Every structure is written in structure tokens, then in C-alpha cells.
Amino acid sequence: MLNNIPEVKLGLIAVSRDCFPIALSEQRRAAVAKAYSGELYVSPVTVENEQDMLNAVKDVTDAGCNALVVFLGNFGPETPETLIAKYFDGPCMFVAAAEGDGDLINGRGDAYCGMLNCSYNLGMRKLRGYIPSYPVGTADEIAKMIADFVPVARAVIGVQNLKIITFGPRPQDFFACNAPIKGLYELGIEIEENSELDLLVAYKQHADDPRIPEVCADMASEMGEGRYFPDLLARMAQFELTLLDWAETHKGARKYVAFADKCWPAFPEQFGFEPCFVNSRLAARGIPVSCEVDIYGALSEYIGACVSCDAVTILDINNSVPASMWESQIKGKYNYSLTDTFMGFHCGNTPSCKMCADRAVKYQLIQHRLLEPAGSEPDFTRGTLEGDIAPGEITFFRLQCDSEGVLRSYIAEGEVLPVATGSFGGIGVFAIPEMGRFYRHVLIQKRFPHHGAVAFGHYGKALFDALKFLGVADIGYNQPKSLPYPTENPWA
């Protein structure tokens, strides 16, 4: 269960231009409320003027709403309706009523026209509002728009109440995910940067914590006998409690947290294990812990958790699929070319619920080569959660601040194929339509780092709308062949 993401409490406010019948807007508001199947607080205050606006905002705030649907039941009052977005502390969606089949004299609302002026006034006041792709509809259609708004609102509320906690600088030669924190403040995020020594001191203070046996039992139950190292559980449980306690005592004025931790090369030798399995367990609760102090990776994971209401992971866009594997296991079975495929990999931080049944806690092969004597049995390099990632739909995405301080993002929907990787780590064979062109003209061209967040399902629509609402202007995606990229050579 994710316990680190917001619960969206929606409110509905109807607005009415004073030269139109207020009853028209109120009747249409009632029809929308009836058509929507989720929880929705309907404000009895219909906004015709600025005082109504203040009363309505107070009403929905007192009711505990943290997101709003502003409904133009008729043309709507341009100033008061847009000021709702200024005075309400939360994301607002603006939608308008389509005309019915009846009276087009006294029953015509002209909300189709009103939405134009609503958008214009939001722009003049530099206010953000979520406007669906076609914001005019019947009660049933608007109910569907409201349902689509919920994951967007959840992501926006989460980001605006998020603190990212880091431990340590980027490892040498892994600066690729290092980025200016300026973009975090632009998004309304707080950041707390700490030393690895701070984490080590806190870890030592949790030695003999009375909660450790309970966490050990939970870890053993999650993995199953024979799939973990019994002598390692207490160390990992101590670390898990250290992070959870740090999150609780350091979140300060924020409601939600994510971590970006330095996990090598000093970490395993000093702590006595690799942190990957613990990181995977926190991610399963909606508390992302990105590797290698990847701040924007942690943020991307958190947005994915808010949108999907599910566990997420972070992976390297890692290696190409061998042609022999594609020929024998993919060609003719799945409609993907070789360059549509790649392997997503990380040492072992993907939640166990998103991996195949044979997953197990193992050791980090690369770190074992570097840090422990040649030919020795793995010791402190143990702690990775390894195995193939379970097949199914995925969305690969990232939000990044580039070296110039500009926020950029990409989103690409695809799937993990049911193809055995024959490799190590937490890994899967991924397939994304037109991945080869996307790799060159978005990932390389716009200088994205190798880490990407993965949501388990197709969430491109909600992610796109959430990022757009947050003010991200550059959102790349895997364009079809019929739509060339600006940097793509048409004669290639």
C-alpha cells in the first residue's frame, strides 16, 4: 500500500455570468455531480462575483478539498472564475457545459464561448489551470474528464508538497544524473542535502532497535525461504528503519518525501551490505529511493507513483538486445524491430511485486569485482534484489533539469516482453515503438541521462498533463515514422 502519496479530495464549484440564468448553471452542476461516480464535494455557492468567489473557496477549503473542478454551466464570469485558481490552494480544472437538445433561447448557456475568455484571463493573470483536450461536454463526458483529472491532481499536489532528501555527492564518473536544483524550487519542491557520514551516524544509532526483528520477519516473508541471506536481514532492517525515521523527522513542513542516496563505492563496505533491497521495499510503499544521488530520478519516480497509485522503479536504459536473442525470441512473435528493443537494468532496486517469481536477494557482481578480493565469496556486496522484471505494459519517462536550468521531460509507452534476459541484476527486455529514433532524437539529442523512471502500466496521458500543468514546456515522446523529429535527416 502506498502511504506517501496524496489523497485527492475533489470539490466542484459552478460559476454563472450574471446576465445568464443562474439556475441553468446549478441544474447542470447537479447533473455532473450525479454522473460522477467518485467522491466529490459539491459547493452550494454558485460564483457570479468576487465575493461569491471568496465564499466558494472558503466553503471548499473548509470541506477539506485539495483539488477543484470549476464548472462553467453557462458563459461564466471571467474575473471571479479565474481568481478561484489564485485563491484556492490546489490544482483547478476548468470545464464547460455543452448545450442540451432542448431550449436554445432561455436554455442556452454559451459556455463554449466562455471557455475562450476563461483561458485568456488565466493567461493574463499568469495562473495555471488544467483544461482537458476538449473541455466542453455533457454531464457524462465531464464526469470522465474529472476522472482523468484525479491522477494529474494527485501528482501536482504531491510535487508541491514534496521534500527530496539526499545523502552524499554523485560517485566519480557518474555525474550524468547531476543537475541544477534550481528546477526543483521552480516546481515548489524542497531539498535537503546531507553527507554520507550523517547517514552512517544515524544508522549506527539504530543498532539494536527493538523493531528490527519485526522488519526482518517481514523481509523474509516477502522473499520466501531460500531467496535471501538470513545473516544480512538485521543489517538491512536497521537501515530501513534509519531511512523511515529520517523521513519522518526531517520532512519538516512538507507532507511527502523521496530519497536520492549515494550507494557506492564507500557505502557497502561501511554499512556492510548493498542497499538495493531496502530501496525496493521503500519504493513499494511510495517512497522512491533513487541510486547514485539521482535527484531528478527520485522526482520522476515519485510523480509516477502519484499518477499510477502503484510501485515504480528506476532503471538504466542499459544495453541493446543481442541480434541472436531478437531473432530467436522476438522476431515473428512480437511486432518490434531490433532497434525497438533494449534492456532496462539496475543493480536490484525494483520492488519484488514487479519481478518474476524467481527473484532473489543476491550480490552486486560489478561491485564485488571492484571492492572485494578476487575469488572471494561475496560479503558486503550482497543485498541486491535480482531477477527478470515481470512482463507487462510500462511507461518509461523522466523529468530533468538540463545544464542551462531548463526543465525537460520525455514519456514513452511500451512493454516488458516475456523474454528471459540471461543476465544479472533487476533487468528486463523492453520494447517501445520506434525506440531507435526516440533514443537518438530525444534521449541523445536533448542530453538526457541514462536513468529513467518506470511506471507499470500505460500512463502517458496523465503524465503528459501533469507535467504540462507543472510548467514543463518540452515533453518529448516516441514519434511515429510519419512524424519526423526536427533533428532527423529526411534523407537518412
Describe this structure as you would to a colleague.
The chain is an alpha/beta fold. The chain folds into two domains: 10-151, 3-Layer(aba) Sandwich (Rossmann fold), CATH 3.40.50; 161-477, no CATH class. Helices cover 37% and strands 21% of the residues. The strands form three sheets. Strands 10-11-16-15-14-17 form a six-stranded antiparallel β-barrel. A five-stranded parallel beta sheet has the order 2-1-3-4-5, with helices on both faces. Strand 14 and strand 15 form a beta hairpin. The longest helix has 22 residues, at 139-160. The two termini are 49 Å apart. The mean pLDDT is 95.
**Overall morphology:** globular
Task: Give unreliable regions as ranges.
Answer: none
- Specify the helix fraction band: 25-40%
* Biggest beta sheet summary: 6 strands, antiparallel, barrel
Share of residues in strands: 15-25%
Question: Which value, in Å, is the CA radius of gyration?
Answer: 25 Å
Strand order of the largest sheet: 10-11-16-15-14-17
Write down how many β-strands occur, each being a DSSP E stretch of 2 or more residues: 18
Count of DSSP helices? 16
Distance between the termini: 49 Å
Overall tally of domains: 2
Q: Please state the structural category.
A: alpha/beta
Could you report the average pLDDT, rounded to the nearest whole number? 95
Describe what is shown at a glance:
This protein is of the alpha/beta class. It has helices spanning 22-35, 50-62, 78-87, 111-124, 139-160, 182-186, 196-205, 212-223, 233-250, 266-271, 276-283, 295-308, 323-330, 365-371, 435-444, 460-469, and strands spanning 10-15, 41-42, 67-72, 92-97, 136-137, 162-167, 190-194, 256-261, 289-290, 312-319, 341-346, 360-363, 382-388, 392-401, 407-416, 426-431, 451-455, 474-477.
